[in-house]
Write a structure and sequence with these properties.
By secondary structure, this protein is of the alpha/beta class. The chain has three domains: 114 residues, D-Maltodextrin-Binding Protein, domain 2 (3-Layer(aba) Sandwich); 88 residues, D-Maltodextrin-Binding Protein, domain 2 (3-Layer(aba) Sandwich); 68 residues, Alpha-Beta Plaits (2-Layer Sandwich). The protein contains eight helices and 15 strands. Strand 13 and strand 14 form a beta hairpin. The chain is flat. Bound molecules: phosphoribosyl ATP (PRT) and zinc ion.
Length: 284
């Protein structure tokens, strides 16, 4: 019995999806043109699909699980369970207007034409804010609509902002944030559900590892108190004697987000020879 997972074949989520599976210890080949593959290192079968189709496959139980952008689910909700945020494919959906257009508040969009490939998300957003606007539904490249006179504004996904900028547009409202999520069919058999639990356990350990760093440093014994107060550690930092008397080596795990702040604090507290290493897996 294998767990079947659907991931994007090509596009912005393809690499992140294969990478998270590989880091979870799952091996597979994904040559071009491959539509499905059997993995090794875990009883998993992988389907390569278009992102828009993944929620349907999972809702219908053709795939047990899938990796897809939250924006796809928001646009067309399906009966699937969202199991885990995966921390890649991050973007946000924004409304943007020509850079010189006057815009102060959402009500300025009243009666305006907004081009988008996300009509349902946009409609809900406008309804929630009681703004009536005309929606122009496009299947892609909404960004050019204002410059060709088709629309007054756009609502699209943004990651770096380069596309909006190069089309002379500026963001004025954030409609939603999005990232890749792991979804699952709500009616899994006992075996499938237990395989999914094992996969989720592995994925969580990969994600915890990504968010943390392993830090090692040397310090004079007199600085240990100050240094351990800065270092949280999973329980508490490890302190080991060095061959040189009066010195210790201190090891700990720190979060990637406050990494620079911690390193600065450690230096001020007398730490030397600081090493920071990536962690492959982390089991809390
Ligand atoms: O072929 P398939 O249907 O599978 O792929 P697709 O072309 O529909 O999707 P793809 O690969 O473009 O995006 C897949 C998913 O990646 C989306 O559903 C989002 O969840 C996520 N994602 C993250 C993005 C972006 N960032 C993103 N920037 N999807 C699209 N974009 C587009 C955006 O629409 C705009 O055209 O990139 C442009 C803006 O990018 P910046 O960097 O210039 O701001
Ligand atoms: Zn698509």
């Amino acid at each position: 019995m294998k767990l079947k997972i659907a991931i994007q074949k090509q596009g912005r989520l393809a690499e992140g999806s294969t990478e998270i599976l590989r880091r979870a210890g799952i091996g597979f080949s994904n040559g071009p043109g491959k539509l499905r593959t059997e993995a090794y290192g875990f009883p998993l079968e992988i389907f390569y699909l278009r992102d828009d189709d993944i929620p349907d496959y999972v809702a219908d139980g053709v795939a047990d699980a899938g990796i897809v952008g939250e924006n796809v689910l928001a646009e067309r909700p399906r009966r699937v369970d969202t199991i885990e945020n995966l921390g890649f494919g991050n973007c946000h959906m924004s409304i943007a207007v020509p850079k010189n257009a006057e815009y102060n508040r959402l009500s300025d969009l009243k009666g305006k034409r907004i081009a988008t490939s996300y009509p349902n998300v946009l409609l809900k957003f406008l309804a929630r804010h009681e703004v009536e606007a005309d929606m122009i539904e496009l299947s892609g490249s909404a960004e050019i609509a204002p410059s060709i006179g088709l629309a007054d504004a756009v609502c699209d996904l943004v990651s770096t902002g380069n596309t909006l900028f190069s089309n002379g547009l500026r963001e004025v409202e954030t409609v939603m944030d999005s990232q890749a999520v792991l979804i699952a069919c709500p009616q899994l058999s006992g075996v499938q559900a237990s395989l999914l639990d094992q996969l989720v356990f592995r994925i969580r350990s990969v994600m915890a590892a990504r968010q943390n760093k392993y830090i090692l440093l040397n310090a004079p014994i007199g600085s240990v108190k100050r240094i351990t107060a800065i270092l949280p550690g999973m329980k508490s930092p490890t302190v080991m004697p060095l061959a040189a008397s009066g010195w210790v080596s201190i090891h700990s795990v720190i979060s990637e987000t406050d990494f620079w702040e911690i390193v600065d604090g450690l230096k001020r507290a007398g730490a030397e020879g600081i090493l920071v290493l990536s962690i492959d897996q982390m089991f809390a």
